[in-house]
Amino acid sequence: MNDSAKTLNVHGRFEGRATTGWVRYVVMVQKEVLELARSYKLLWVPLVFILLGMMQPVSTYYMPVILERAGSLPEGTVIDIPMPQGAEVLAQTLQQFGTLGVLVLVLAFMGTVSGERMSGVAAIIMVKPISPLAYIGSKWTAMLLLTWGSLTAGYLGSWYYTGLLIGEVPLIDVCRSLFVYGLWLSMVMVIALLLSTWLRSPAAAAFATFGGALVLTLLAHLFPAFLGWTPGSLSGYAYQLAASSMEDSKMLGYAVASTLVGAGVCISLSAALLSKSSTDE
Amino acid sequence: MTTLLQVMGLSKSFGAVNAVNGIHFSITEGHCAALLGPNGAGKTTTIRMIAGLLRQTAGQLIFEGKEPGGKHRELIGYLPQTPSFYNWMTGLEFVVYAGRLSGLSSAAARKNALALVERVGLAGAAKRRIGSYSGGMKQRLGLAQALTHQPKLLILDEPVSALDPLGRREVLELLHELKQETTILFSTHVLHDAEELCDDVIIMRSGQVALQGPLEEIRRKHRKLTMELQIENDAASREWLSSYIHNVQQEIDSSNLSCLFEAAEQHQVGARFTVKDSDAARRHLVEALARHQVKVTKLELGHSSLEDLFMEVVST
Amino acid sequence: MNEPFVLADLIPVLAPIFVIQLILMIIALVLCAKAERTRGPKWVWVIVIVLINIFGPIAFFIGGRRSE
């Protein structure tokens, strides 16, 4: 007992100089990543993306055989499906990521803030000398790490198989579309984070995130002339980039800028919501 | 003796309900203070405001003479009523994490965490997942994580109320040691816990401070002399007791200044009197007993306990 | 017209997909076995994980475990 008391006094507050806010933010990011690893999300989410990515070119390639083997066609029918371009397959892969991929990512993170608040652990954490912005920021950083990692792995898998089975696509096009699509997913994740901070129910947060992302995309695609500069049009630009048929690179620039601003606003809003709700309930 | 924390006119209302209603108190450095009161008195609300988890509707908190600007959170260690943690972490990992969030370097956080888990008796379970901990272990882990950065003020919300007798004993003993090292403010609805640990008490009732001060002083100031009488259970004695109490009661009710008694209550075969002057009252009672040949089994002079005072303060 | 399909050509292409599916399934099964409480009976989850490709394990990862 006495020994441990002594160690405590030697290494207490008075000796160790306090670390900066930045260091505490990094510590929180490490904790988030450790949590992703312990819950195996760090493993299964990228695997799902890789699977989705590889299956797109493979199923496209084997589609005629699959149809033939299905056997319901009359004898002698000639199946003539034109083999698509490699770029089209990559665009289809991105669409897969936009539905199933987003579903997986949003469901994986739907309780990231609300869960900690409901369980009560947030009370212990928020009492520590850390800023709400650092807390929210650490969550978002971990979400981005997993999102970008999974997207890159899955997309590169798709690119490799597309090149193998269907046709080569220049790596530079792949990288450009990857960057733009990653930005769109980052926007979806920041919406998920905001809603997870705002709403108590993880399911409601996930549902609202899907709805929000859908509305953003639909509006941007319905009114490209008016809303081409919004984050919702990013996914469309990514498909075009994959097919190296970018029409309006100026609009793309605006869309990227508006996404960055939008993400910043959502992050600040989440932090403000967190500090308000954690001191007002 | 310096004042560590001064609470001035602190209020909190939730809608139309005033949970805490303009309370004042101060906490002296190095002392152990108990926030005592029945459930619903506003203890947890007060504690959460001091911890910075709840914004007050009105009033001020002054730490070390300064108004808090977020900086004060480095001075505080806080343990909520039913603490929860990251169940996927081990106990040791959580204490290290808490230390790092409080601004300790990696090496210092680790060193402190190792010392603390040993100190709170979790050394054997330190590498186990928190999800498998019992309630008492979680409470002790909560103490360890609140202590990592050597806080100047340790704030505990009902630290022992949810524990079984054994866990309660362990945590109380731990707090006994801790009060030598740091200032402690803890809330409880159990008077006995406050009496056992504290230098100062702040008794709260429906959002207000009903009574506060050093425990010894309160004990001395509010101590009343009592006489405890027991008689045998025969008809004559019982009859006499009833009439005697009746007379005393009448005298009390008539607010007679020369009355020797302040209160009298009868129970089965005895009575308890609160008296102003023990000598005179005793003489009065003994004479009456002798005159009516009452079969006394016991007559004891004593003092009212803190429990009596607590009940009186809280229930009026 | 389509090129003729030979099984030997298929195997190196499809093997990685099967391996990844297998890994997902194994992780899900291990977690299911280790979980203290699952949403619904464990044996149902085992069937779901084994029989439904990709989505069985994903469904378990997302909604199968009940945290205390």
Describe the overall structure.
The complex is a heterotrimer of chains A (281), B (316) and C (68). Chain A is 79% helix and 0% strand. Chain A is an all-alpha fold and 281 residues long. Chain A has one domain. In chain A, helix 2 crosses helix 7 and helix 8 (171-198) packs across helix 9. Mean pLDDT of chain A is 86; it is low at 1-16. Chain B is an alpha/beta fold and 316 residues long. Chain B has three domains: 1-73 and 181-212, Rossmann fold, CATH 3.40.50.300; 76-151, no CATH class; 225-315, THUMP domain-like (Alpha-Beta Plaits, 2-Layer Sandwich), CATH 3.30.70. Helices cover 37% and strands 29% of the residues of chain B. Chain B has a six-stranded mixed sheet, sandwiched between helices. A four-stranded antiparallel sheet of chain B has the order 11-12-10-13, with helices on one face. Chain C is mainly alpha-helical and 68 residues long. Chain C has one domain. Chain C is built from three helices and no strands. Chain C has helices at residues 7-34, 42-51, 55-63. In chain C, helix 1 (7-34) packs antiparallel against helix 2 (42-51) and helix 2 (42-51) packs antiparallel against helix 3. Chain C is elongated and about 45 Å long. Chains in contact: A-B, A-C. Chain A binds chain C through residues 40-41, 43-44, 47-48, 50-51, 54-55, 58, 62, 64-65, 79-80, 104, 107-108, 161, 164-165, and chain C through 1-2, 5, 13-14, 16-17, 20-21, 23-24, 27-28, 31, 54, 57-58, 61-63.
Cα Rg of chain A:
23 Å
Mean pLDDT of chain A: 86
The major sheet of chain B is characterized as: 6 strands, mixed
What count of helical segments of chain B does DSSP give? 10
Report low-confidence residues of chain B grouped into runs of 5 or more.
none
- DSSP E strands of chain B, number: 13
With strands numbered from the N-terminus, the spatial order across the biggest sheet of chain B is 5-6-7-3-8-9
Work out the strand percent of chain B: 25-35%
- Global structural class of chain A: mainly alpha
**Beta-strand fraction estimate of chain A:** under 5%
N/C terminus separation of chain A: 40 Å
Q: Could you say how many structural domains of chain A there are in total? A: 1
In CATH, the topology of the largest domain in chain B is named Rossmann fold
Rg over C-alpha atoms of chain B, rounded to the nearest angstrom: 25 Å
